[in-house]
Each structure stands twice: as structure tokens, then as C-alpha cells.
Amino acid sequence: MSVALDQGILKCISTDTVRAVMRSFVTKEVSPALHRSSYAAANENDDPVRSWLETCTVLSNGVEDLVDDAINRGQSLVFEGVHIIPSRNLIDKWVSAGGVATGCMLKIKDAEAHKMMLRRRGFITGKGDPEEEKIKSFDRIRAIQDDMVRRAEEAQWLLIEQKLDPDPLEMISNNLLGVDLAPLSLPKSETKIDLSFIEEPFAVGASTNGEI
Predict the structure, then answer these.
(1) What pLDDT shows up at residue 126?
(2) Residue 198: what pLDDT?
(3) Eight-state DSSP code of residue 189
(4) Domain assignment of residue 149, yes or no
(5) How far apart are CA 98 and CA 87, in angstroms?
(6) pLDDT of amino acid 197
(7) pLDDT of res. 149
(8) Residue 56 dihedral angles phi and psi, to the nearest 5°
(9) Is position 211 within any domain?
(10) Domain for residue 20, yes or no?
């Protein structure tokens, strides 16, 4: 949302919202992955990355349809959420339509700092129990983050440390405007894409901690 406001983008969509709408008319029996948390196990001893990818895949058509709609309307858009797999797909589609776009991922390199951030979020929001559940599944979350970082690097997304000078918003803005950026060091956990029309910006993002 901060990126949207910084870029003057009025439309910001979270994949959590897309998932909530789909859950209202698609039952758990029809699509177990849709009703599963992105970091939850699909079965005993499953692979956390594969299970995460399943939760992304069930939303992918809905996400792409919303991006197509924004392109057709010529509207700027921020799309964020852990269910967006870092890739060139949405970025290239946006650029092909005449816009400018960038993807970015904010990550936490230090595991203990990551845990502290989750607990702090639970305290601030008053919803500590969900964050404690995440900490119980912390190894899975870290494995998912590692895979997201790898994919983000391959897709040439920005990799940004959350507490960083210059400000991450400035870095994203510079990237959209084609300004060269200095190489970045990394330690914090989140992901984000910014896709923008020259007149109507658009952004998409994904994160392992839901705080984009």
C-alpha cells in the first residue's frame, strides 16, 4: 500500500482478498489448496515450497484476470501478496501493453529478526495467535522465502532490505523511472512487484510475512 500511495496509484489489491472471495464460492472439498494457508502442510512430510506453489496456482488465473482488466482500463495497479510467484510473466505482459513495471522483494536474512518481526506484528495488530502459528511453522516459512528470493533473482526483481538507506520507496520509484541503482545488500523478508504504465502505474508483490 505504501508503494501505491508513493506512486500515486489508487488501486491496491492483495492476493488475500482474491483468495477470500474465491473461498466464498469454492468449497474446501473442491479445492483444498485454496483453503490452506500458504505455509501450511498439505500432508505429513510434504515439501513446503511445493505446497506453497499449489496455493499460488489456484489463484493465478484470478490474479492475471485482474491485471488484464487494469490493462484494458488503462488503470494503475498495485498487486501484492505471498501468492504471487516471482517471475517475469506479469511484468512482461504489462510492458508489452505499453507500461513500465518493476518487481521487488523485501526479505529478512536474519532468522531471529524475522521471528521478532512476526511477534511484533501480532502485538501491534492484537492478533498474536496467528503470528505464533507462523512461528511454529517458521522453518517452512524460511524455506518458502529462500525459494522466492531465488525466483526473484532469476526474474531480475529488486531485492531490498526493509530497513535500508535509501528508502525502499525511493528505490522502487527510481527503478520505475529507469534511474540506475547501487547494488543492494540483503537482510529482510518480503516480496513485491511494481508494474506501471507510463501514465498509469501498476505494482504487484508477494511476501512470506504478509507485510507488503
Answers:
(1) 56
(2) 40
(3) B
(4) yes
(5) 19
(6) 44
(7) 94
(8) -75, -45
(9) no
(10) yes
Q: Which of 117, 118, 144, 115 is nearest to 131 (CA)?
A: 118
Domain count across the chain: 1
Asked whether 77 and 11 are in contact (CB, 8 A), the reply is yes
Q: How many CA atoms lie within 13 A of 167 on its CB side?
A: 6
CA-CA distance, 203 to 183, in Å (whole number)?
A: 22
- Residue at 210 is within a domain: no
Beta strands in 29-182 (DSSP E): 77-80, 99-107, 158-161
Domain residues for the domain of 119 are 2-204
Mean pLDDT per block of 10 residues along the chain (212 residues) reads 70 92 97 95 92 97 95 89 93 92 85 79 56 80 94 92 59 67 38 47 52 35
AA identity, residue 137: S
Angle, CA 187 vertex, CA 181 and CA 192 arms, to 5°: 60
Could you tell me the pTM of the whole model?
A: 0.75
Task: For residues 92 and 83, give the distance between their C-alpha atoms in angstroms, rounded to a whole number.
Answer: 18
What is the SS3 assignment for 136? helix
Supply the pLDDT for residue 10.
74
Sheet holding 99-107, edge to edge: 12-14, 77-80, 201-204, 192-197, 99-107, 158-161
CA distances from 140 to 13, 46, 143 (A): 25, 10, 5
Q: Determine how β-strand 77-80 pairs with β-strand 12-14.
A: parallel
Distance between CA 206 and CA 212 in Å, rounded? 7
Q: Where are the beta strands (DSSP E) in the chain?
A: 12-14, 77-80, 99-107, 158-161, 192-197, 201-204
